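Re: the pair you flagged

First of the two:
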Amino acid sequence: MGLAVARVAATHRVFAGTADEVQHIAGGIEWLRAGSSLEAFDMWRKQHVWFVMTNPPIARIAVGIGPTLAGTRDTRLRDVLYDGPGYARNLVLARRGILPFLAMLIAVVWWMARRFWGDAAGLAAAAAVSTLPPVLAHAGNATIDLAAAATYLLALLMLLRWLEAPSRARACALGLAFGFALVTKFSALTLLPAGLIVVFHRHHTERTALLPTRPAYAVQLAMATVAAGLCAWAAYRFSFGRPDEIGDPATMRYLVDHCAHGSAARRFLAAVIAVPMPAPQVADSMLALCAANGPGVSASYLLGHITFDGYALFFPLALLVKTPIPFMVLAFWGVRAAVRDTAAGRWRRLAPALVALTILVSVLPSRINIGVRHVLQLYPLMAVYVGPGLASLWRAARPRLGRTLAVGLGAWQLAIPFAAAPDYLPWFNVLAGSHPENVLLDSDLDWGQDLFRLERELEARHIDRVSIAYFGAADVCRHHLPGGRWLRPHDPVTGWIAVSEMYRKGVVGFYYRNGDYCDRAQFVGEAPPDPGQFAWLDAYQPVARVGKSILLYYVPEGQ
């Protein structure tokens, strides 16, 4: 745990803010500064940024504490990181807020594996999850995905404890853990169908009651529900009101129109959000998530192709190239051992695998295909099986081969973070080939993290003018970059050129009409994806790759 936290903390000053960090930091500061329950969400009306509504507050509060204590007050998305102690310091302070969740994640993985298979398996699981590049990457960002994985796993552990020996205390613990997970990220809702699958599996293997039939169990479930509701409501400051009064009318109409199909469905949704309710922000968040997953809203990139309809195989393929090979092999052998296990309590040992399968199936229809971070919970769930996987190989029918594989795979897994550091986020295994940007982009490779490196690269080369197309939330006008202009689509230029992979592949096409990236009035934010927008660069080879996500070109005058 200490080694993982140290590894992540060492990256805090290396990388610039990623595309999503600014909205979470601003949301956390806004919540902490709020004088009333709905004032915390007032920036929705101020800035008309509806996507800010799509996430609950717990992780945002955690990343907002450090900047708030340091004096950051401006919560406008363009300005928040530059207020108070400044850009770099605000990022470090915000990112520290995720480190406790990383410690929680490792501890819960250890606890769960130890309960199932003993001390050695617990240690192996903790070591495995703490050496996974995707886990380390998102533990280093001031976002909500790592926190969501940690709280999700804690809620699952509380569910298994309650199913093992139901009691009122365990029911309350389950409710609080689930409520905490829910207001960290709404994907915690997948625990409900996953929990039912675990109950059915227990009934099938141990011939127990399918559902609690005793009145005491019904009371305990009611207590868990109340505890979860109160926990979630507290995160929204016990607010009460109409959801349609939080966002501005134009935003609310946009969300209803993009979520519902057909006039009847739209009228129904409009009527629902006009009803006063506890935590009305939750209803707005669900509506925004529904709209974000609508057709034609979210651009997805996979294997060189762009679509607005999502890819059914996006997450399986992304996991295949973003997961260390030794981890996949050991987890597979661990699940295999759990399936073959006939000892009492087998349903407990298979529960994490069943929950992982439920999560994976639930995201297949999603149109929001922008990174494995949206299924980050799968990594700790499968890490639980690394210990029995190692034990199964160690006790294989051919001892010499099995033990050699066990030692080799274990050593390989432990070596991966040393080789990947500090670029945990754009790390890929060998299955992605030498050009992983042809497989995945966005938060799996180019999330705006290499701006600091670009500053140093341009300074080292004594470049005094550069044309740029940078993907990220930073205001490049306020960074130590030489003079220059913003690259516009289909507008060839000469000289030094720095372009993010997200622009180079045409996934995003935002630009400034006059090329002046300090003139916000010239910003065009509705440019559709266009794979050919910088096709004229195909005639040139990059001079350098800055970090993993920015290409640096030089086009001589006259060409």
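Second of the two:
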Amino acid sequence: MQSITSSPNYLCRNPYSFCFRMKVPKDLQNTLPKKELKYSLQTGNLSTAKIKARFVAGQVQLFFRDVRKGKFIGVNLSKKQMHDMIKKFMQRTIKSYDQPALYDQHDEDIIRQSHWEERSVSDEIEDLEMIKEDLNCQLHKGDYSAVEDETDSLLSEDGIAKGSIDKGSHAYAELCTGVLSAQIMGIEYRQKRLKGNLRGDLEDLLQGCLPGSQQSKPISAQDTPREIVIEPAPEGKKISEIIPLYVDEAKINWKPKTENEVTASLNLFIEVVGDAPLQSINRAKVAEYKQVLKKLPPNKNRVKKYRGKSISELMEMPKEKTLSAERINKNLERAGQLFEFAILHGIYEGPNPASKMQVPKDKHASQKRAPYTNQELELLFKSEGYLQDTFSKHYMFWTPIIALFHGMRQNEIAGLHIEDIKETNDGILYFDDIYSRKSDPTQAYRVAPVHPFLIEELNFRKYVENIKSKGHKQLFPECKKGRDGYGKAVSNWFNSRYKEKCGIVSKDGRMRDFHSFRTTFITRLRHKKVPLRELKEVVGHSVQIDITDTYTDPYPVKQLFDQVVSLASFHKEIDLSHLKNSKYVPK
């Protein structure tokens, strides 16, 4: 027996072809009748053998999983039952192929066939060969979809109700394999009859398709069963063993929260596919993972009604919404990165099974968040909280106002520190080096001038001084830093309670939340034809328009004040004069 260099560790070669062998795990050796599984791959081509061996390895791991879950063949279906069902199917197949004596070599009429009739026989043999090739391909791939109806019919005839046998179990797979093999044998029988050969004994034919037989595989006339003797191979590292290795190496370039997000994503992968050896995961398994992701709710570990539920329970539960295409693709991308790491380090052999698995993105996603209309802004800023000054926290009063007049993100506003509020030599107050850069040093330097309404009407400069005098470092001390930054308190308050209390509803299917302030700011200024590059610099979007932008310094604060921020005129479009009477505005 010769080992194959640079091939899967379960792939070896005998003098005639390549073959597969895997040792039964120790915890299953008392359950299964064998301590190792052996299969002939029936090919002398190395590339083909690798593909088949990887598929077989995946199927074997699924079989081991089913055994551990109690889905072993002896639980639901006996060997004798399976033998009898396949024999019955084989009898029907042979009967359907037994035609009148026109093709019997003892019938003298066959000698008197015309040339056209002989040509018809040849055509049928050729057609049958093509069908047989297709069935052989299905058998090698483990694709039983073409014979599921026949298999279910056989089970029904034997008094076994539909659904009693798990279609994902090894028992069902073995029965389907037998039915596929019986179809192949039936075609070969038919071909021999057309060529004038006598019918063989049914029991001899059955030996090639019964489960557990040495010949339970597609067989051609020239095949000769051979004993396979190869060394057992290790199963490889489990997914849970590889994740820490990958994270430990990759996290050097990650933000702190990224490590938690990646680990959570890969743990979800384990939760869905099982903690199997990584080498046993193929594209079909990743595709199954993708289908599960499509049915899961967002924040399943945070939302009370989903917390603690299994994946199967979550899939059955009614859900208001499921994971977005962006989130699904992020999970698939992270699984793919794990495989890339494993391939690079020799832990996984073969192409990345998660490559090109992403779901299409919604082309209209950017249109799903709506800017606020003036009527909606009236509802938000003339609520009880603003009119009667009942807000209990500083951020409840200030964060919506700052968001509206500056287009800043929720996390950026909530994370503002006293040191971020600076003033130019010519007296322009501005937010300096906005929060996003504190979280990610790779972000570009960015400033945003403070709008005149905050300075002149709401005495924002004095508010900053008051907070500083109390020894606070944050502009809004109630906003505590969490895994995803400082914005959680703002999000929980505004998105979950406040906007609905104000009567903000979506009748057009477009989202309206805190981020809609940013959409409102950008939309209104674009409609006023504010220079695009200056606007992007204020709101923190990529500013490159042409190659010269790469070599252009940021605009002066005064220019951004004059040409962008000061043009936001919401205080002139809706009455906001009552805001200056708040307890949060210094007198």
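The longest helix spans residues 115-141.

-B.
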